[in-house]
Predict the structure.
Amino acid sequence: MTAIYLIGLREGLEITLVVSILVAFLVKSDRRPLLKWVWAGVAVAAVLSIGFAALLQFGVARLSFTHQELFEAIASFVAVTFVTWMIFWMRRMARHLGRELRGRLEEAIGLGRWAIVGVAFLSVIREGLETSILFYAAAQETTDSVRPLVGVSLGLLTAVVLGWLLYLSALRINLTRFFTWTGALLVLVAAGILKYGVHDLQEAGILPGLNNTAFDISSSWPPGAWYAELLRGMVNFTPAPTVLETVAWLAYGIPVLVIFLWPSRPKQLAPSGRPAEPAPAPAAS
C-alpha cells in the first residue's frame, strides 16, 4: 500500500501540475470560456485511464495460470520501463514544462475547441496510462484487492489537494527536491517490480532457478511486523528470494539510483556570462 500510495502521489501530482498550468494560462489570459474544453479533455483521459486499469485487472483473470504469469511479467517490465523513462524525463523537462504546455495550448486555441480538448487529453492520458500500468504491476505483490485501491486513491487525493493549494499559492513546495526524492524512491519500487517480473517468468517455467535461493531468513523473519510489510511493499523484499531475482534487483536498482542522483555538471560560463567555448586542441609538436 505504501508503494502504491507513492505511485498515486507522484503521478497524480504530475497530472495536477499539468492541468493547473493549462488552467492558469487560460485564466490569466482572460479566456475563461475555454476552460470547459480543457476539462473535457481531462475527463476523457481520466475515463480511459480508469477503463484501461479495469481491463488489466479483470481481463487477465480469465487467462490460464501460465499466461497470467507471463502477462504479469510483461506488465512488470513495461512498468519498470515507464518509471525509468518518467523520472529522468521529469528531471530534464521540469524547468521547461510550463513554457512547452503554454505554447501548445496557444497554438491549439488558434485551431479551435477540439484542438484544445486534444492538448488537454494528450497532456493527461500519458500519465494516466502510466499510473494504470504501475498500479497493476505493483498490486500483483498482494492478494488483497482493497488495499491497493485505497493506496492509489489516497495518493491521487493527496496530489489533488497539493496541486490545488499550489495553484492558489497557499502552499510552496520545492518541486525539484520533491521529484528528486520521490524519483529515488520510485527507482527502488521499480527494482522490486522488476524482481517480481523475474519471479513470474520463473513460475511460468520460462526462466530457470525457481528453487535456487540466494539466501533464506524465513525462520527469523517476522512476516507480520510493520517493517517487514514496509520492505515488502516498497522494494519487494522477500526472506527467500531466488538468485535471479536478487541479481535483477541489484543490477537495476543500484546503477539507476546512482545515475539518477548523480549531480549534473553546470555549464562553465565565460567572463562575459556566456557559455565558455571549448579550449583549442594543443598544437602538434
Summary: DSSP finds nine helices and no strands in the chain.
